[in-house]
Each structure stands twice: as C-alpha cells, then as structure tokens.
C-alpha cells in the first residue's frame, strides 16, 4: 500500500487543521491506520490510531482535541486537529499496518502552529 498525506500548513494557536492520508492499493479496510508526529530533535511519537473496526486510541497530549477517522469508501484516514498549540508543531506522518503486521509509511506533512 502507498500512502499520501496532505493537509498540513501554518495555523495560529487555537486554530484547526484536518490532515488526510490517502491510500492506494487494495483492501484498505483491512489495515489498521495511525498518525505519528516528529518534532525537531525529538523522537517520533504516536498521535492516534484506528483499527479496522473503527476503534480509536489517542495519545494523552491530544485527547479531547484531535479526532481520527477513516472512510473506507475513499481509502482515506483523517486527523481532525482542533485547539492547536505551538507544541503540536511537527511533521505528521500516516502509517498502515496489515493483518500480517507489515507496516507502511507515507511521507510526512508539516504542521506549524504559531503562538
């Protein structure tokens, strides 16, 4: 599967962005999907994930602010980000995990939150 993330940009603190990750290939619905981020000088960290059944999981630092969702008819996973903070500034990447535990990565999209 190939993944293409989009939707990043520059936003003021308190603003919102919606990231999209479009997947090519077959059987998108069989992949668990996740959003990760990496800030300069920091390790990559999980932001949110969604299972094939639609169950979601969030990092504590985004709970109540970010929402992950998926549209299997469009082969796309979304990350709605509200109440953005400067510390949310990072490169956001999407990831897919197959039923055989193979992991795939898309290229990242830059999110910059100004104070």
Oligomer: single chain
Query: Which structural class do the helices and strands define?
Result: mainly beta
**Which residues form runs of ≥5 with pLDDT under 50?**
none
User: What's the tally of helices?
Assistant: 0
Biggest sheet features: 7 strands, mixed
Question: Can you give the helix content as a percent range?
Answer: under 10%
CA-based shape: globular
What's the Cα radius of gyration?
Answer: 13 Å
Distance between the termini: 37 Å
Beta-strand percent range: over 45%
Short structural summary:
The protein is mainly β. It is 0% helix and 52% strand. The strands form two sheets. Strands 2, 4, 5, 6, 9, 10 and 11 form a seven-stranded mixed beta sheet that branches.
Features:
four-stranded antiparallel beta sheet, 11 strands, 115 residues, mainly beta
Would you kindly provide a written description of the structure presented here, covering whatever features stand out?
The protein is mainly beta. It is 0% helix and 52% strand. The strands form two sheets. Strands 2, 4, 5, 6, 9, 10 and 11 form a seven-stranded mixed beta sheet that branches. Strands 1-3-8-7 form a four-stranded antiparallel beta sheet, with no helix packed on it. β9 and β10 form a beta hairpin. The N and C termini lie far apart (37 Å).
